[in-house]
Specification:
By secondary structure, the protein is mainly alpha-helical. It is 53% helix and 10% strand. Helix 1 runs parallel beside helix 3 and helix 4 packs antiparallel against helix 5. It is globular.
């Protein structure tokens, strides 16, 4: 299976949109969203999302206008080890939102390492 830049960006867009919806539904109003796609963050920050043909990107922009407290923070992909590990464990076949109440064993080491370095 070949994954191109467009595919990766589409996944990032979907994850950001679903994350914002989930946060809103759970009552969070001040949100700090970490994303390893600098291109997507700039697209949203600069207002270009409102001109997009993609309904998901416009949806992100709309939720950001509702969530006046949304802050985007770019993180390097290699720093986002937990997301990478979960994606690899699912073989790139994740086509639905999965909410983990407890982190899987295979990512706990990464999370504990992150806590130690905060």
């Amino acid at each position: 299976m070949t994954v191109g830049l467009t595919d990766i960006l589409q996944v990032e867009v979907r994850v950001v949109l679903e994350g914002l919806k989930l946060a809103w539904d759970r009552g969070f109003r001040q949100i700090e969203l970490e994303c390893d796609s600098a291109m997507l963050i700039e697209f949203i920050r600069n207002g270009w999302a409102s001109m997009s043909n993609d309904g998901k990107i416009r949806g992100i922009r709309g939720l950001c206008l509702i969530h006046l407290g949304v802050k985007f923070r770019h993180i390097q992909g290699e720093v986002n080890r937990v997301a990478g590990c979960v994606a690899k464990a699912n073989g790139g076949m994740m086509d639905q939102l999965v909410i983990l109440e407890e982190p899987p064993r295979y990512v706990r080491e990464f999370l504990e390492d992150d806590i130690r370095h905060c």
